[in-house]
Amino acid sequence: MGESGDFGVRIAALHTAATTLRDNAAALRQHAGAVADHAFGIGNDRAGRDYSAQGADVHQGFERAAACLRYWSAAAAATADVIDRAATEYERLDRDRATALDEAGR
User: Fold this and answer.
1) DSSP string, 13-82
2) What is the pLDDT of residues 16-58, one digit of tens each?
3) pTM surpassing 0.85?
4) What is the pLDDT of residue 44?
5) How many CA atoms lie less than 13 Å away from 56 in the CB half-sphere?
6) DSSP at 100
7) Which residue in 7, 2, 4, 11 sits closest to 89, CA to CA?
């Protein structure tokens, strides 16, 4: 059997993971905006003027890609929130159990 510190939850690592996920979610959201703002086939673009149907298809593809990035961003942010809440709950449980053990030992 190992030492008492061999098994446990690294709470700081969970908070760090949540922060990293939030940063990634923000980057995904930013990229989704950039993709959605791509004006391919919109307005007075001269490129592809003889292929408007294909241009519209490409534009719809950009819109779908932007939507996927937004969904991915929302999922990453929600996952970060869950990880943060779990880490906070681990902290609370550890604190409560430590207090109970201290009181039982008196």
Assistant:
1) HHHHHHHHHHHHHHHHHHHHHHHHT--TT-TT--TTTT-HHHHHHHHHHHHHHHHHHHHHHHHHHHHHHH
2) 999 999 999 999 999 999 988 876 655 556 656 777 787 778 8
3) no
4) 54
5) 4
6) H
7) 11
